[in-house]
Write a structure and sequence with these properties.
- The chain is of the alpha/beta class.
- The chain is globular, with a radius of gyration of 20 Å.
- Strands 3-2-1-4-5-6-10-15-14 form a 9-stranded mixed β-sheet, with helices on both faces. Strands 7-9-11 form a 3-stranded mixed β-sheet.
- The protein has 13 helices and 16 strands.
- Bound molecules: galactose-uridine-5'-diphosphate.
- Belongs to the polysaccharide synthase family.
- It is an enzyme of class 5 (isomerase).
- InterPro entries: CapD_C, NAD(P)-bd_dom_sf, Polysac_CapD-like, Polysaccharide_Synthase-Rel.
Length: 344
């Protein structure tokens, strides 16, 4: 990937769905060292064996622990911060765990990156951080706020550039709905649909990696990038998968909304878009770099008026069943599931 003169990078959460794809991409390029910081030695071992590349270096540790973060950060020129608790239900039941990892852990990554003069830190956020209603989204919104505060604090001339990316549902990520629906279809169980009209942005893993690369290449202090993306209803997603796996009339069971779910997700608010830069496939949301000068806040205030709507999964490009089917077919994860699969 186009990491310029960067020789050594760190991917926190490097054994997750995003992390592994990122690590693969990085190793395809001319890079000296890719560090992976994560907690699970078994996942690290599996990735080590799969990669068989001495340039990949594994650090066991937890971002909650400043020491282990420092050790992994020291000496790298770029950090891609993907480690997180990202399951909505688990964060809902254990919100303090989300605080420990997504808030305090991210603060460790931000501080260590500044301290060790890392050139670029890109932090991964989610659409669930916009107008958040669940603990996962709230903790990620806090991470975004910490990035903004640190960016204002160190200023545009600092050695470290800190940015965020925000994206929607990554298709086929571990524990998400697509692998679940595929399993249900293959096992002849009903597809469990929460609310057929619920929509989600659909982002292939490759696009999430491209977004992070875009942020790395274009970030100014405190920027947040989003990629424009298509969405579909859950009903259409279920139908497309059932058709693909040769069971067009597969039974569907309505299970109702889960804890703290939204009918649709918002990638950027109208207010944010009011000052954003349209970069084609991407938006750059700018840091509000006014300082804590209350007179300016209250007598001058923010004069830009938002002229558009929020950008959300109900009003973005909507894929129909055929559109979802084509997108699914382009994913290596789905292709692997289809290989050798014949119904019955
Ligand atoms: O049995 C199920 C499970 C889910 N859904 C629906 O499918 C959609 C997607 O559900 P996922 O569990 O795949 O994703 P979430 O939107 O809940 O959240 C996901 O996307 C987040 C990013 O926005 C995080 O990555 C998070 O880990 C991941 O679970 C939702 O509308 C959900 O209601 C069903 O219809 N049936």
């Amino acid at each position: 990937m186009g990491t310029g003169k960067v020789r050594r990078v760190l991917v926190t959460g490097g054994t997750g769905s995003f992390g592994k794809t990122m690590v693969h991409e990085l190793l395809r390029g001319d890079i000296e060292e890719v560090r992976i910081l994560s907690r699970d030695e078994e996942k690290q071992d599996a990735l080590r064996n799969r990669l068989g590349d001495a340039r990949a270096r594994f650090f066991i540790g937890d971002i909650r622990d400043r020491e282990s973060v420092s050790r992994a950060v020291k000496g790298v020129e770029a950090v891609f911060h993907a480690a997180a608790l990202k399951q909505v239900p688990s964060c809902e039941f254990f919100p303090m765990e989300a605080v420990r990892t997504n808030v305090l852990g991210s603060e460790n990554v931000i501080r260590a990156s500044i301290e060790h003069g890392v050139g670029s830190l890109v932090c991964l956020s989610t659409d669930k951080a916009v107008q958040p209603i669940n603990a996962m989204g709230i903790s990620k919104a806090m991470m975004e706020k910490m990035v903004q505060a640190a960016s204002r604090e160190i200023g545009p001339e600092a050695a470290t550039t800190i940015s965020c990316v925000r994206y929607g549902n990554v298709m086929c990520s571990r524990g998400s709905v697509i692998p679940l629906f595929i399993r249900q279809i293959k096992n002849g169980q009903p597809i469990t649909v929460t609310e057929p009209n619920m929509t989600r942005f659909l982002m292939p893993l490759r696009d999430s990696v491209a977004l992070v690369r875009f942020a790395f290449e274009h970030a100014r202090q405190g920027d947040l990038f989003i990629k424009k993306a298509a969405a579909s209803t859950i009903a259409d997603l279920a139908t497309a998968l059932a058709e693909l796996f040769g069971s067009p009339n597969h039974p569907v069971k309505a299970i109702g909304w889960r804890h703290a779910e939204k009918l649709y997700e918002t990638l950027a608010s109208a207010q944010e878009l009011g000052t954003a830069e349209d970069m084609g496939d991407y938006w750059r949301l700018r840091l509000d770099d006014r300082d804590l000068n209350y007179a300016a806040y209250f007598s001058e205030g923010e004069t830009t008026t938002a002229t558009m709507d929020d950008y959300h999964s109900h009003n973005t490009e909507r894929l129909d069943v055929e559109g979802v089917r084509q997108l699914l077919l382009s994913l290596p994860e789905v292709q692997a599931e289809l290989e050798g699969w014949t119904r019955g």
